[in-house]
Amino acid sequence: MPAENSIAPQRAAPAPNAASLNAASQNAASPISASQSTASPNAASLSAASPNAATPNATSLNATSLNAASLSASVISWFAANARDLPWRRSGFTPWGTLVSEFMLQQTPVSRVIPRLNEWLGRWPTPADLAASSPGDAVRAWQSLGYPRRALWLHTAAVVIVQRHDGVVPRDVDALLALPGVGDYTARAVAAFAYGDRHPVVDTNIRRVIARAVDGHAEPGPPAARADLAAMSALLPEGRIEARAFNAGMMELGAVVCTARAPRCELCPLMSVCAWRGAGYPGYSGPRKAVQKKYEGSDRQVRGTILAALRAAHDTSTSVPRDRLEELWPDRQQFERALAGLLVDGLAVQSPAGVRLP
Ligand code: SF4
Fold this sequence. Notes:
Layout: H1 43-48, H2 58-64, H3 68-82, H4 95-105, H5 110-123, H6 127-131, H7 135-142, H8 149-165, H9 173-177, H10 184-194, H11 204-214, H12 225-235, H13 240-256, H14 275-278, H15 299-312, H16 322-326, H17 332-345, E1 349-351, E2 354-356
Antiparallel strand pairs: 1-2
The structure holds iron/sulfur cluster.
Iron/sulfur cluster is lined by residues 40, 209, 212-213, 257-258, 263, 265, 268, 270-271, 274, 276-277.
């Protein structure tokens, strides 16, 4: 593991990894100890806040209320004392492990990822091991993590890593971005957390902390990659080790303290400088990102139902008769649409005997 293992000196094996800290991890238990007593807003007060309340001016707040160096020092110090013990933070966790965990954590909570991650890395400890298996094996091992295209992308990424990078997860952000399924966040998270390079890493938690503490807004609004990266860059410490700790600390802060629905300001290292808190928690009236449709009854549910049946088949080369699949969903039109989507996405393959994993 690279030198960034040293960024959280108060813990035995604290190599913080952005992977753990997506929005889904907000319910995880935190070892944070209470140190201050100012009341924080609860979910009810957040929603009740007046949408017409004055919104602080981001520029003036940046200039007067917050100093990037002291903000980062506060977060780094807090993180050193409060980082959760998670698999990807332990000594010896490989860049491949980081990449796999980042894929899994893109849409799935930490608690559901950890068992799958352990199984996955036990079976495929290197990209070459995964590349030597079939895509169907990857889809099958993905089980119920959701959004199974990630399994296919990860398999293809492993093949590319073997073919173009001698089986070593690339360190360069552009090379990482060229891998299937890797976007701005994942590429920089791998470069920063697996290799210790200095990059701004921006996930939904960091966007929320910046929106509140720096800009004085209750919510960050829809993602805007360029602006989001610039905002984090403006706060990022110069040193590589400090930058890495700051990235990880901001994610942790958003995951366990500055949560979307019920921020616990009394535990926050930014409490005294937070612009949103200082302004009296004004309500949010800006644009919001699109709300995802509910899973029940959706095409996603039908796809999941079909995939579960294909996974349950004896192995990835075993087809399930089509009429058996059709029995799984009463709405024939929706079934056909979902199956067609799986075929187009490469998550299922038609054969004379029926349908099977790729
Ligand atoms: S940054 Fe800290 S003080 Fe500000 S809203 Fe979030 S938890 Fe509260």
